[in-house]
Write a structure and sequence with these properties.
Distance between the termini: 36 Å
Number of helices: 22
Helix content: 55-70%
Largest sheet: none
Structural class: mainly alpha
Order of helices and strands: HHHHHHHHHHHHHHHHHHHHHH
Strand content: under 5%
Length: about 475
C-alpha cells in the first residue's frame, strides 16, 4: 500500500467509523431497550454475563458464538475501566460489539479487494478505497451494525476466513470458518466455498494442461458455448473420480474437511441444523429464493448490472439462443409453480420491508410471480455475465454454494442474502469510477431513508403500547 493510499484508507475508515458512532448514539437514544430479535439475543448475552452458561432461550435458533464473544470482550473491558451495575452488558454496550465488527469488516473488505484484484494494475488506490467504503455501507448489512444481531460478526469471520483462504492459510481459514459457524450454522456453506476455491484453482490448472495437450484453442477455461460446458463437466467428473487427484485435493483441503465433518456430527446429534425453536425454521426446496436473490442483487448493483449495454447484449443473446432461453423460462415457471412457499412471518410482520414487497408486488395478482420470469432470466444472465472474468470452475462452485445457502430457506429474509451478495460483489471486475460513485450515492440514499424510517416513522399495533419501527 502506497503512502497516499494508506492515508486515504485511514481517512475513509475513520470517517466511516465516526459517522457510525453518531448514528449509533442516535439509535440508542431512540431505542434504548431491545428491539425485534434483540428481545432474545440481549437477555441471552446478559445471562452469560452473569455466569449462567447453562441457561438457554429455546426461541434462539443460532449457536452461542455472538454471546460468548460478547462476554469475552465486555467483561475484561468492564474490569479494566471499572464499570459496574446495569451498564455492563446493557443493550447499548452489546450493540457496540457490532460497531467494532463493522470496523473490522471495513478493513477486511479492503484487503479482499486488494488480494482478488491484485493483478489488475489499472485499478487505482482511490478506486479500491471507494469500493471498500461502498461495500461497508451496503444497506442491509450496515443497518444491523446498530442492533445486537448476529450478522456483522457472521460476516466478519466469514470474510476473514475467505481472506486467509486466498493467502493459502487454510488451517487458519478453517478455524475462522468454525467461528463463523458458531454465529450462524449456514456459514458452513462458505467453509465449503473456501475449500472450493482451492479445488477450482487446481481444476483450472488441470484444464489448461488438458487443452494444451489437445492443442484445442477454441475451448478455454472461461465460459463458452453449451457444448463446451458439457466437455468441461465431463472433464470435471473424470478429474474428481481419479484417486490420485482426490488424494491431492484432500491434502490441500483437509482443514475444511475436518470442519465439515464436525458440522455433520453436530447435525446428526442435534437432529438438524437449527438449535432451539424449529417450528418456524423448517428447511424446504424453495427454488424461487434464487430468483429473489438475483432480483435483490440487480437492485443493489444496478450501476453494474442494469445498463444499456447489458440490456443490448442480453437481447442479442436472446435472439441467438431462443430455444435455450425458452427452456430456462419453462423450468423457471415450473419451479415457481411447484416450489413457492410463503412463510407465516412474511405475511404477519409489517415491520419488515419484505412484508411490503410481498404485499405490493407478489400479492397484487396470482400471475405476478410468473410474469416476473423474464426479469429473473435477465437478472441471472447479467449476474453471470459480470463473473465471466472468473474461471468456469469458480463460477460453478460459487453457484452451488449460492443454491445451498438460499434454496433451503423458507422465509424471504434479505439478511440471508448479505454474504452471497458480498462474495459476488468482491469478485466482479472493478467498474468505472462513475459507476462506483453512483453505487455509493445510491447506498447513502437508501441508508438515509432506512434510518429516517426507523427513527421517525414509528407506529403501534392495536392493543399494544410498544413502539414499532420499520426495518430490513
Amino acid at each position: 500500500m502506497e503512502r497516499s493510499e494508506a492515508h486515504g484508507f485511514a481517512a475513509a475508515m475513520s470517517g466511516a467509523f465516526l459517522l457510525s458512532c453518531l448514528l449509533f448514539a442516535a439509535i440508542n437514544r431512540h431505542q434504548r431497550g431491545p428491539y425485534m430479535d434483540e428481545a432474545f439475543h440481549v437477555p441471552q448475552a446478559q445471562a452469560y454475563c452473569h455466569g449462567r452458561f447453562l441457561q438457554w432461550d429455546p426461541m434462539i435458533t443460532t449457536l452461542p458464538g455472538l454471546y460468548l464473544l460478547s462476554v469475552g470482550a465486555v467483561k475484561p473491558a468492564a474490569w479494566l475501566f471499572g464499570w459496574t451495575g446495569s451498564v455492563v452488558c446493557s443493550a447499548g454496550m452489546l450493540r457496540f460489539i457490532n460497531l467494532l465488527f463493522s470496523a473490522g469488516n471495513f478493513y477486511l473488505l479492503y484487503l479482499l479487494l486488494f488480494k482478488i484484484h491484485q493483478k489488475n494494475k489499472a485499478v487505482s488506490g482511490f478506486q479500491r478505497i471507494l469500493s471498500t467504503l461502498t461495500l461497508a455501507m451496503f444497506p442491509t448489512l450496515y443497518f444491523f451494525t446498530f442492533l445486537y444481531y448476529t450478522d456483522p460478526g457472521s460476516v466478519f469471520f466469514t470474510l476473514f476466513a475467505y481472506l486467509m483462504c486466498l493467502y493459502g492459510n487454510h488451517k487458519t481459514s478453517a478455524l475462522l470458518g468454525f467461528c463463523g459457524f458458531m454465529f450462524r450454522q449456514t456459514n458452513i456453506v462458505w467453509t465449503v466455498f473456501c475449500a472450493g476455491n482451492v479445488v477450482a484453482e487446481k481444476l483450472n490448472e488441470a484444464w489448461k494442461t488438458e487443452l494444451q495437450k489437445k492443442k484445442d484453442e477454441k475451448i478455454s477455461s472461461r465460459k463458452g458455448s453449451f457444448s463446451d460446458l458439457i466437455r468441461i463437466l465431463q472433464f470435471l467428473i473424470e478429474y474428481l473420480i481419479t484417486p490420485k487427484n482426490l488424494v491431492i485435493l484432500t491434502a490441500l483441503t483437509w482443514p475444511y474437511i475436518i470442519l465439515v465433518t464436525v458440522f455433520s456430527v453436530f447435525v446428526f446429534i442435534n437432529g438438524g441444523i437449527v438449535v432451539g425453536d424449529r417450528s418456524s425454521h423448517e428447511a424446504c426446496l424453495h427454488f424461487p429464493q434464487l430468483f429473489y436473490f438475483l432480483s435483490f442483487t440487480v437492485f443493489f448493483s444496478f450501476p453494474h448490472l442494469l445498463t444499456p449495454t447489458k440490456i443490448r447484449k442480453f437481447l442479442l443473446s436472446l435472439r441467438k439462443h431462443p430455444v435455450q432461453y425458452s427452456l430456462i423460462a419453462v423450468i423457471s415457471l415450473f419451479l415457481i409453480w411447484k416450489f413457492t412457499y410463503v412463510h407465516k412471518y412474511l405475511l404477519a410482520d409489517n415491520r419488515h420491508y419484505t412484508f411490503y414487497v410481498w404485499r405490493k408486488v407478489f400479492q397484487r395478482h396470482d400471475l405476478v410471480k410468473y410474469v416476473l420470469v423474464p426479469v429473473y432470466i435477465f437478472a441471472g444472465w447479467s449476474f453471470a455475465d459480470t463473473l465471466k472474468s472468473k474461471s468456469i470452475f469458480w463460477i460453478l462452485m460459487y453457484f452451488v454454494c449460492l443454491l445451498a445457502v438460499t434454496v433451503p430457506q423458507k422465509l424471504l429474509e434479505f439478511r440471508y442474502f448479505i454474504l452471497p451478495f458480498l462474495i459476488y460483489r468482491l469478485n466482479i471486475p472493478f467498474p468505472s469510477l462513475y459507476r462506483q460513485l453512483l453505487e455509493l450515492a445510491f447506498y447513502i440514499v437508501v441508508n438515509a431513508v432506512t434510518f429516517y424510517l426507523f427513527l421517525n416513522r414509528t407506529f403501534q399495533w392495536p392493543n399494544s403500547d410498544e413502539i414499532q419501527r420499520f426495518m430490513w
